[in-house]
Design brief:
It is built from one helix and eleven strands. It has one helix spanning 8-22; strands at residues 31-35, 43-47, 56-59, 67-70, 77-85, 94-100, 104-106, 113-123, 127-128, 138-140, 147-148. Strands 5, 6, 8, 9, 10 and 11 form a six-stranded antiparallel sheet that branches. The chain has a three-stranded antiparallel sheet with strand order 3-4-7, with no helix packed on it. The protein starts with 7 loop residues before the first helix and ends with a strand.
Length: 150
Amino acid sequence: MAHTPLAPLSAGIVVATLLALVAPAAGSSNWTLALNTGSKAEAQAQPGPSPPGGVSDACVSSSGRTVTVSWNAVADASSYTIFKSTTSSSSGFSSTKTGETATSWTSGTLAADNYWFTVEALVGTKWVSVQSAATGETTIATSGTECQQP
């Protein structure tokens, strides 16, 4: 069987079709599809960056209402986003700090509730990891030892 070269418009349609077929499902890992110049419409997918590991949180003091979240650096990360949940360790997360360039972050004063934190890494301007595993539960009480960790 002879191979027929693709016309430029056909190559664009093939790339668009590949993009639609390779798009990740919601909640799955981030993938980037790249098409190199002169590749004759041969595409290559690469996985996104790994999420930060070693994510933990610690009470700044037992009588306070602030926590410090720490994590291991991700290679080539330009910044990190910290998420918090008052629902559970697996749902209800919302962004609480974006653009953090260090590998730790200290919260402001937290309201009485139970908290879990996750972190994601941003590499460059478009590569984002999935969120890390959640920290253990931290409880901010209304009186006594205000910041508690099991």
